[in-house]
Description:
Number of strands: 18
Number of helices: 2
Low-confidence stretches: none
Mean pLDDT: 96
Order of helices and strands: HEEEEEEEEHEEEEEEEEEE
Radius of gyration: 20 Å
Largest sheet: 6 strands, antiparallel
Structural class: mainly beta
Strand content: 35-45%
Strand order of the largest sheet: 16-15-14-13-10-17
Oligomer: single chain
Helix content: under 10%
Amino acid sequence: MTQPATLSDVAAQTAARWAAVSAPHGTAALRHTHWLDAEARAYDGAPGRWHGEDGRVVGTGLPGAVSAVTLSAGEHVDVGALRLKAINRGGAPALRVFDPETPGRTSLRGILSFPHDDAWAIRGVFRPAAEGQSIVIESVDGYEREEPAVGTIALEVGGEPVELTVWGDLDDELEAVIADGTSNVDAYRFRFLPIELPAPDGSVTVDFNRAYLPPCAFSDHYVCPLPPLNNRLAVRVEAGERIADRA
């Protein structure tokens, strides 16, 4: 059974989360995401010229000692204060520009959260998906991808039965994307929720205190997945991160 978090645990997690978001090349520093094709051209905020090749990101004419780079998804190169990072979505490469001076980072003062409350750690039952079952995940820009289904978690939230669709790795950790009665009112429009692996009998604790803001809450240039319909709860989930606090 998951043990309740101590005050020192919560403080340490909060500090680590803030460091990851607010770092010079952290989550809030994303200024551009440029989807590339085979033609090399200049893009806003990115020095040099960029194109896609075999799913990778290729840059030429860069200032400094390294004038050309080829980046696979997840790799990056730093040019001056900028960090230029490659991603790939469904075979389509893109260049992300992280800029410490982007207003999304410089205006950020903190992350507002609901008070931690162990009552929001709710017991449920994991139900694995049938073999061969799949789900369609839609992103904020309308892009859809099909993924193997992992399963659902049945639990009761605010007196209402809920069946959360989850995805992830049954050898590591599960995750849900949720919206609730606080969305677009006291909190961002949706949140991510990591969930520890279920026990062999399927029992699992869903701790809504762990709900955190998606990257989209800090920059419009991310392409976050949206919550499935059954993960859009009517009840107010007053737990976890709420909203980015800006000057």
